[in-house]
Amino acid sequence: MKNASTTSGPKKVTTKVIAAMKKDGKRIACLTAYDFLTARLLDQAGIDLILVGDSLGMVFQGQETTLPVTLDEMIYHAKTVVRGVDRSMVIVDMPFMSFQASHEEGFRNAGRIMKETGAGGVKFEGGERIADLVHMTVRAGIPVIGQLGLTPQSIHQFGGFTPRGETAAEAKQMLKDAKILEEAGAFSIVLEKVPASLAAKVTKSLTIPTIGIGAGMHCDGQILVVTDMLGLYEDFHPRFVRRYAHLAESIRRSVKEYVKDIQEVKFPTQKESY
Fold first, then answer.
1. How many CB atoms are closer than 10 A to CB 15?
2. Does the annotation mark 105 as catalytic?
3. CA 89, CA 264: separation in Å to the nearest integer?
4. How much is the pLDDT for 44?
5. What is the C-alpha separation between 104 and 271, in angstroms, rounded?
6. Is 274 domain-assigned?
């Protein structure tokens, strides 16, 4: 059974709520989730938007990049997340090669995610080149979030996880791409690893909200990978991640104590036996 959120506010976060938050100057709190239990905890804590990110390839599957994640895997994880949520809006990443081959294929795959998961929308990486796909998808009633800046599905093209938009040409194109995505119908845009000054310009130029990750304080919302924020994923620690807990250390310590209790025949006790 799902538990009600512990936060006040709308009973269900929708695109209308997200738009109103920007208009009213209220910051949008976002995190990723890949499973039922985590999603339920985030929802109860008052997270506005939960992204079922293809980052699961790295932090859940142990892959080096997000590229190996399949559409079926995204659908599986999205189903489990949606089951844990009452209030938060759930958005699902369109994984690598689920939309790059053709707009028609991307459109069908976005529809499949919506039909099979019960999510509230999808996220596409890219700007001008996917404008027609975004427009087509939104016209069909599927909410879309765009993503600009560092787009991990293009990591081999970029040559690494380096910031984007640092040159004048890149900054100009990003501003253009953001307006194009807005005009195509996207209800929000994620800006990843973008100079704070550029993210501020993009945010000011749009009527739809921006959600930053490594893009400074002037975005309308912020998102982090939940395993980074909770200190579960320790393989790297980019400077834009603030760790609010150190759960990896806590888990190791707890398991070591459990192992010790078993070895010393301290668990289970008579009270813990039938």
1. 17
2. no
3. 47
4. 98
5. 61
6. no
270 part of a folded domain: no
Domain with 27 in it: 15-245
Q: Which amino acid is at 209?
A: P
Surface-to-core class of residue 109, CB atoms within 10 Å of its CB (0-12 exposed, 13-18 middle, 19+ buried): buried
Q: Would you state the pLDDT for residue 15?
A: 98
In a domain, 77, yes or no: yes
Task: Calculate the CA 82 to chain-centre distance.
Answer: 14
Average confidence (pLDDT) over 174-178: 97
Alpha carbon distance 24, 38 (integer Å):
29
pLDDT in tens, 74-123: 999 999 999 999 999 999 999 999 999 999 999 999 999 999 999 999 99
Catalytic residue among 104, 170, 183, 192: 192
Say what the pLDDT of residue 157 is: 61
Q: Give yes or no for residue 158 having a pLDDT over 60.
A: no
Q: Is residue 92 part of a domain?
A: yes
**DSSP labels, 167-198:** SHHHHHHHHHHHHHHHHHT-SEEEEES--HHH
Decide: 36 and 80 in contact? Cβ < 8 Å.
yes
User: For the domain that residue 217 is a member of, what is the CATH number?
Assistant: 3.20.20.60
Which one, of 10, 13, 88, lies nearest residue 45 by Cα? 88
Q: What is the DSSP letter of 242?
A: P
Number of domains forming the structure of the chain: 1
Q: How many CB atoms lie within 10 A of CB 211?
A: 28
> What is the rounded average pLDDT of the residues 251-265?
98
Token pair listed for 159: 């040559």
Average pLDDT, the chain: 94
